[in-house]
Amino acid sequence: MSPSGHETLEVVGLSKRFGGLQVFQEISFTLPQGEVLGVIGPNGAGKTTLINVISGKLAPTAGRVLLGRREMTGQPLHAVSRAGIMRSFQQTNTFSTASVGENIARAITFSGGGSAAWQAITGMLDEFELAPRLDEQSDKLPYGLQKMLGLVLAFVTRPKVLLLDEPAAGLEGRERGRVDSFVRHAREELGCSVLIVEHDMDLIRRLCPNILVLDAGRLLASGPPAEVLARKDVIDAYVGAVEEEVA
Ligand SMILES: Nc1ncnc2c1ncn2[C@@H]1O[C@H](COP(=O)(O)OP(=O)(O)OP(=O)(O)O)[C@@H](O)[C@H]1O
Questions:
Q1: Which DSSP category does 113 fall into?
Q2: Coil, helix or strand for 3?
Q3: Which of 26, 85, 102, 165 has the fewest C-beta atoms under 10 angstroms from its C-beta?
């Protein structure tokens, strides 16, 4: 990790419109290297689209994305991922009919890694119960393991910034703890920054020193979760509904 934090992600005045639908507008924030930032908000608030735009999958309508002051705006997905911004998906992102091992090998090849890259994930493969399943077809894995494989595939590319889209969705209690562990690995071993879109408020409180709240495409609030989640406008827009659903 760079102590100077030179791989800061900067999002400046970012807007995205699909035809007549303004999905989000004028979103600005910075994610310093090695930090974890949560993004929450109601369904349809624009969170996944924000990840799609930062990752280069979609071009913004306005605004800029910079990594370590390098211009990422408008660059295609493969160029942005090679620069070090890597996303995971709400759904799993494996080549479904390939084996677990083949998927990992492809991701390592994509990032120019070799045997050291395999060694670097030995502990994680054991911990996430993927080690005994390397020969199994990826889409035959239980859902929770497919999600962990998706995270491991992002990890082996050694990203500078990881964008995680609902990593805990569909996971049960013990499996959710693996998301915490994965984020710890990413920070400690890669020095990587992590942006997490999530509806699981406990996970957000555990992992994120700071959060952003998106509501109807606007940045409603930002700051530490204890502070932000207690705000009346945030409770009205989002938190009350989510915590009622969970109760
Ligand atoms: N490619 C697209 N073309 C047109 N509209 C889209 C497209 N992708 C998303 N949208 C719309 O943009 C809005 C924001 O969607 P988005 O998936 O970003 O929300 P979200 O905050 O991630 O929601 P959720 O929490 O349910 O995942 C929605 O109204 C959605 O229908």
A1: -
A2: coil
A3: 26
The pLDDT value recorded for residue 2 is: 42
The three-state secondary structure class of 196 is strand
CA–CA dist 136, 133 (Å, integer): 5
Helix, strand, coil percentages in the chain from 3-state DSSP, rounded to 5? 40, 25, 35
Domains of the chain with CATH codes: 9-246 (3.40.50.300)
For residue 3, give every residue at least 6 positions away whose Cβ sits within 8 Å of its Cβ, in sequence order, or none.
none
Residue whose token pair is 């924000």? 50
Instruction: Give pTM, 2 decimals.
Output: 0.92
Pocket test for ligand 1, best of 22, 47, 55, 166 (most atoms within 8 A of CB): 47
Q: Are 195 and 8 in contact (CB under 8 A)?
A: no
Residue with CA nearest ligand 1 atom 25: 43
Compute, in angstroms, the gap from residue 4 CA to the centroid of ligand 1: 35
d(CA 192, CA 84): 9
**142-145 long-range contacts, CB within 8 A, separation 24+:** 143/92, 143/170, 143/171, 144/170, 144/171, 144/172, 144/175, 144/178
Looking at residue 9, its amino acid is L
Q: Residues 138, 95: contact at Cβ < 8 Å?
A: yes
Residue 237 DSSP symbol: I
- pLDDT tens digits along 95-139: 678 999 999 999 898 888 888 899 999 999 999 999 999 999 998
- Counting from 1 in the atom list of ligand 1, the atom nearest the Cα of 52 is 18
